[in-house]
Design goal:
With about 600 residues, this protein is mainly alpha-helical. It contains 26 helices and no strands.
Length: about 600
Amino acid sequence: MGCFTESLSSFFNNRWLVFVAAMWIQSCAGIGYLFGSISPTIKTSLNYNQRQVARLGVAKDLGDSVGFLAGGLSEILPLWGALLIGAVQNFVGYGWVWLVVTGRAPVLPLWAMCILIFVGTNGETYFNTAALVSCVQNFPKSRGPVVGILKGFAGLGGAILTQMYAVMNSPDHASLIFMVAVGPTMVAIALMFIIRPVGGHKQIRSSDGFSFSIVYSVCLILAAYLMGVMLVEDLVDLSETVVIIFTVGLLVLLLIPIAIPVALTFSSRWSRPSVEEALLSDSQKQDPGKSEDDSQDIIFSEVEDEKPKEVDLLPAHERQKRIAQLQTRLAQAAAEGAVRIKKRRPRRGEDFTMMEALIKADLWLMFFSLLLGSGSGLTVIDNLGQMSQSLGYDNTHVFVSMISIWNFLGRIGGGYFSEKIVSDYAYPRPVAMAAAQVIMAVGHFFFAMGWPGAMYIGTLLVGLGYGAHWAIVPAAASELFGLKKFGALYNFLTLANPAGSLIFSGVIASSIYDREAEKQAQGRLPGISRGLLSSFSSYVHLEEPLKCDGAICFFLTSLIMSGLCIIACMLSMILVYRTKPVYAQLYGRSRR
């Protein structure tokens, strides 16, 4: 009995259990991706026009990206507390929307509905923060794969929740809003005490590589399975029984990874520690972030101030001896209170506070590179329907589903390949982001050209590149600025996404599209000026805006996006150049 209790305790403290639970929470964190499915129901029930629905979409984007409060609270509260707040926000926000839409609560003004959508969607920032913070701390040597897999599941969340909704077969489309309110809330509350740091640095095992291979295999199978199910359900009228079978298959795929912590806990063959773990010193196991040299770091600046200038002229062996003697005297004096030790500022690769990180050029290089790269990708995602329509495609939702899958695979691949770069070559991780931005630049060029089949190639390239950003950037931020304030740093960097989309989609893409649409309308109605055409449209209250046909609609926009990705690549390479010594220090020693 005692042995079983010990095994059960070991199971609940296994870092792989935390990772699997975080994957499940992230599967429910893609609430924002479902807005396109629930907005028609809101529009119909409340008699909104398209402009009012667009305002709800802005509130959704802000809620999805403004995570300062989540990052700050994750440093004060235990992670289960952050998850509980996120669950309450999700339930209250979307639950109230469901009550309004179904007539169970009085209709609210538009600004109040925007607040509810913001509050509900903002709940997923708590899910993201808790999952990433706990798993990055538990897997300090596998940050790239961990972040890529978790962000990938967040990207697939919309497709997973949509398949769950298909089982309900409800004629009331508002039931999807109810599921969005209740489903993620129940999952987060059920798993909130599992999501936590569990001393993962002590659990390094030789089987970790095989375990990650299992997770990667599940991810690839899951992506292919969802793609196949979506295509079959779109092309064939399936019975309710077949839909249930498809959904059960999806649940089985999601449950497969739980076999990893079960096997690690209850299999004697897998539970043996690796050679690397056995060689860890006790002091390292107690605090992985500290080494023997850290005790001397606090007096480093004092040594620099106090050492005589002639010390630098001595031979290396003698110089080190004199500096060691000076450090010893300073340490003794500090212990006796004779001198006051000045605490130096952190170096890259150590723990930064938010304010210390904000004055670093590396953070702003990463931010603006992300703004240009991911912002251009989000512009494509937001306008993909119009882009495909302008090129003559009728089934626009096919491209929306495709870019979701490529986005997922980009996140998985970005984490995997960036980890290979840093672990095998000790080269800066941002070089993988530069490569992703080159891929995106090529994808935007294909969109601009509008060749036959270009939509498929562009969707593939932009989806992969965009997804890779969200596996690479959080891992790189944790390496350069430490894990202590990782939640706040991550949520600061996510602001680049809506900022880029607001500028590129809300200003550039929409303005160019409307201008080309007006030109085409003038061609069909010669003699009517642009101002008169706009006035006529307003007078007759056109329900739909002017439409643009042909590759010209997004030609200039796509070329601009391609150029911005090249600029983002240049910023990433500057960051690579600046951080080479950091990565050589972080990963070079492990290679030796």
